[in-house]
């Protein structure tokens, strides 16, 4: 029988900040490959990062007694931090040698690693730069299909690609928590299809009040604490909320 799971540990957007802050802090490292000659498109990088988070959450190593499961539980018991760093050439090859999962999009490659203590990054990742992830879309992304989960970005915030990748990952994670076991399995078996798009201002206003999963940023970098950054519009959640976004 399927059921609607309670988020494992504390969601960064639902529980009391003091309790989350008292727990040991962990971070989910994501590394995006940005070669000088062929940087990925921005939207593809955001979508690939979101899928990478989902791939890790659905991996057997992150579940039950898997080798990454305790690290994932520890991470989800505190603030759900994600940090995106960039790599190219030998840096990327060293990152690929560490335990993790590489997820590829149309032009983007993102490697996600099991959570690590906030001050305990592997040296191969600690030396990578966070800045420099300002990516562009060569063409405007096409409209998403009606049955495609969409992570709607706020139209009123200016974020670097790295920051936006982390926010898209948060939204994907919130959607994952809200789905039943059967819905999660269906999404995973389909390869986690999703789109990242920026909402128009009218749509964004309706999305924020829709009851769909909403990311409120903790404000560690770039934007003010409490900023609403992304809404996760998954068809299964949309049908339950009665929201019609398109």
Automatic annotation (TrEMBL):
Is Acetylation included in the keywords of this UniProt record? no
| Ranges where the record places region Disordered | 1-22
Reaction(s) the record says it catalyses: an N-acyl-L-alpha-aminoacyl-tRNA + H2O = an N-acyl-L-amino acid + a tRNA + H(+)
Q: Tell me the domain of life.
A: Bacteria
Q: Which UniProt keywords apply?
A: Hydrolase
Supply the enzyme class, top level: hydrolase
> Compositional bias (Pro residues) at which positions?
1-10
SUPFAM superfamilies in UniProt: Peptidyl-tRNA hydrolase II (SSF102462)
The reply on keyword Oxidoreductase is no
Record GO terms (molecular function): hydrolase activity
Per the UniProt record, which EC number(s) apply here? 3.1.1.29
Supply the name of the protein.
peptidyl-tRNA hydrolase
Which organism is the protein's source? Streptomyces tropicalis
């Amino acid at each position: 029988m399927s059921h609607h799971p309670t988020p494992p540990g504390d969601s960064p957007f639902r529980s009391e900040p003091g309790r989350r802050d008292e727990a040991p802090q962990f971070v989910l490292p994501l590394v995006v490959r940005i070669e000088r000659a062929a940087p990925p498109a921005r939207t593809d990088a955001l979508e690939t990062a979101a899928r990478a988070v989902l791939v890790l959450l659905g991996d057997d190593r992150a579940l039950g007694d898997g080798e990454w499961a305790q690290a994932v539980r520890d991470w989800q018991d505190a603030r759900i931090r994600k940090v995106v760093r960039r790599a190219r050439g030998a840096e990327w090859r060293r990152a690929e040698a560490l335990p993790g999962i590489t997820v590829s999009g149309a032009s983007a490659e993102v490697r996600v690693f099991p959570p690590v203590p906030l001050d305990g990054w592997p040296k191969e990742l600690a030396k990578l730069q966070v800045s420099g992830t300002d990516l562009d879309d060569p063409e405007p992304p096409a409209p998403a299909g009606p049955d495609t989960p969409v992570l709607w970005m706020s139209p009123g915030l200016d974020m670097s690609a790295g920051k936006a990748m982390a926010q898209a990952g948060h939204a994907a994670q919130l959607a994952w928590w809200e789905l039943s076991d059967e819905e999660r399995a269906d999404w995973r078996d389909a390869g986690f299809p999703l789109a990242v798009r920026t909402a128009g201002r009218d749509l964004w206003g309706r999305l924020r009040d829709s009851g769909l999963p909403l990311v409120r940023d903790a404000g560690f970098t770039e934007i003010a604490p409490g900023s609403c950054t992304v809404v996760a519009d998954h068809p299964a959640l949309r049908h339950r909320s009665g929201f019609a976004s398109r």
